[in-house]
Amino acid sequence: MTILSMQIPENIKSLSAYNIGQLLHKKKICPIDLVNFYFNEIDSFTKPNPYILLTKERALSEATLSKKRLLEDSPLSPLDGVPVAWKDLFDFKGCVTTSGSRILKNNNPAKNDAEVVNLAKKAGLVQLGKTSTVEFALGGIGTNSNFTTPENAIMKDLPHVPGGSSSGSGVALANGLCAASFGTDTGGSVRIPSAWNKLIGLKTSIGRISLKGVSPLAISYDTVGPLTRSIKDASLIFSILTNSPYLDFEKIKHNKINILVVRGMPWIDIDDKIEKACEEAFVSLSKAGINIVEKEVYEIEEMHKLLAEHNGGTTIAEAYLEWKNLVDKFGSIMDKDVHNRMLRGKGMPKSSLNSIYNAEEILSKSLHNSIDNYDAILMPTIPILPPTIEKVKNDSKTYDSFNSLALRNTRIANSLRLCAISLPLPEKLPIGIMLCKALNKDEELLNLAETIFNIIK
After folding, report:
1. Domain that residue 113 falls in
2. Residue 105 a catalytic site member
3. I want to staple 383 with a disulfide (CB 3.0 to 4.6 A). Which of 113, 185, 270, 326 is the partner?
C-alpha cells in the first residue's frame, strides 16, 4: 500500500501526536504533506508568531526519510513522521541558540543537536523549528520585549500573556502549529504555558532527561519536558527522551487511589473561577470513587515561606551566576524585567542561598516520606488567570506581582524535588490542576495522570 497525497483531515490541529502518528502509519497522510501543511499554517498565522526560527529544509529532509520508512512498514517509533517544535534553548546543528536574547543573536551556530533533539530525531520526529522564550528563560509570565511575546491561545478578547518561559512552545501547540512541543522547566516553565493554553505539561524529575546542548538557567533545578494534548503523547515522548521502553498504562481501580489535596498556600489569593473549577474537579474525583484527603502540608508551607522571605530563592542567583558576564556588560539591552530579576540574584547573600539549599534538602526528604501514603498530591497549577500583556509590560511592580503568583505553586515541585504534571480542566477558561509525586516516580505519575484525566476532562 502506498501513501497517497491525500487532503489533510480538517481536525488535524486538534489531534494528539499519537493519533497523528496513527494516521501516518496507516498511510492515510504523507509526512511531507503534513510538514508542508504546518509550514503553511505557520506562515499564514496573523498574530505574533510563536516561532523564531523555521527549519524547513531540515524538516522536509526528515519527513522524506520518514515517508520511506513508513512505506516499508518500518517506523522508528509510534511518533515517526510527527512534526514538533522546540523552545529556543535547545541546540540545533547549524543554528544559533539565542535563548530569547539579542545578546546571543550573533553567536556561533551549534556544532551538534542537543542530546534530546537527537533522541527525537532517532525516533523519527520531524523538527519544524524553534519557538520563542522569555530571555534566558527567566520568567513565568512569557513576555519578551526584545523578541516576541506570543499571545495566549485561549483568552482572545484582548492579548493576554502566554505563560513562560516556554511561551512559544505553548502557543504553537495550542494553535495547532505543531503536533507536540518541547520546553524546559526550572520553576514552572513547562506547566505554566501548558495550564494557560489548556495543554498537558510534564515537569520531569531532575536528572531523568539529558540537558546536554540545552541552554542553562539554574542548573540545580533545570529539567526538560513536553507540552502535549494527551497523557499518551507525554508518556511516549518521556520514553523517547529517556531512551527507555514505552509505558503501557495500567488501569487502576478508583477505590484504590489515594490523593492528597494540598490546602493552605496554593489557595492564597486564588481567582474565584479557578477555585470553583478545581473544587468541582475534586468532587468529580471523589464521586468516581477516589479517596480524597485534604490538608495543609508542612513542608510546602515552610518552603514557600523561605522562598518568599528570600525574594524568589536560588533560581535567580544561579541564573545571574550563569550569565553574569553578559548581564554586567549588556544589561542595558536586556528585557528590563529579566534584567531586574538577574540583579536581585546578584545581590542575594551566600547565607540566604545556603539557607534555601539546606532547607530544600531537609524538606524534600521529609515530604517524600510524608506523601508516601498517597498516590499523588494535587493542587491548582496556577492561582491566577493570565493577565493582559498591556497590564504587565510597562510597570515592573505589576509584572513582579503577576510573575510571582504565576510561579508560586509550580516552583514548589522544583525546590522539593518532585515530578509534576499539569492537566487542563474542561472549563472554557485556561485552568489547570497539578499532580505531583516524589523524585523519579515519573512513570507512576504518568500512569495515574491518565486515570485522573479521563475522569475530569
Report:
1. 16-241
2. no
3. 270
Burial per residue of 186-204, b for 16 or more beta-carbon CB atoms within 10 angstroms, e otherwise: bbbbbbbbbbbbbbbbbbb
Query: Rounded to an integer, what is the distance from CA 271 to the centroid of its chain?
Result: 22
Q: Which of 66, 167, 169, 189 is catalytic?
A: 189
Closest-CA residue to 252 (of 289, 283, 227): 289
Say whether 210 is catalytic.
Answer: no
Q: What is the CATH number of the domain that holds 78?
A: 3.90.1300.10
Q: Establish if 255 belongs to a structural domain.
A: no
Q: List the one residue out of 153, 177, 154, 80 whose CA is nearest residue 120.
A: 80
φ, ψ of residue 304 to 5 degrees: the values are: -60, -45
Distance from C-alpha of 35 to C-alpha of 16, rounded to nearest angstrom: 16
Cis geometry, peptide bond prior to residue 77 (ω within 30 degrees of 0): no
Active-site residue identified among 13, 87, 393, 437: 87
pLDDT digits (tens, 9 = 90+) for 187-221: 999 999 999 999 999 999 999 999 999 999 999 99
The answer as to whether 433 is a domain residue is no
Active site residue 101: no
Q: Is the dihedral of CA 11, 13, 16, 20 positive or negative?
A: positive
Radius of gyration of the chain (CA): 21
Q: Is residue 221 part of a domain?
A: yes
Task: Select which of 165, 166, 167, 169 is catalytic.
Answer: 165
Q: Is-above-0.85 flag for pTM?
A: yes
Residue 155 grid coordinates? 483568552
Task: Give buried/exposed letters for 126-141 (b at 16+ CB in 10 A, else e).
Answer: bbbbbbbbbbbbbbbb
86 burial (CB, 10 Å; 0-12 / 13-18 / 19+) is buried
| In-domain check, residue 28 | yes
- Summarised one tens digit per residue, pLDDT across range 78-113 is 999 999 999 999 999 999 999 999 999 999 999 999
Say whether pLDDT at 355 is over 60.
Answer: yes
How many domains, the chain? 1
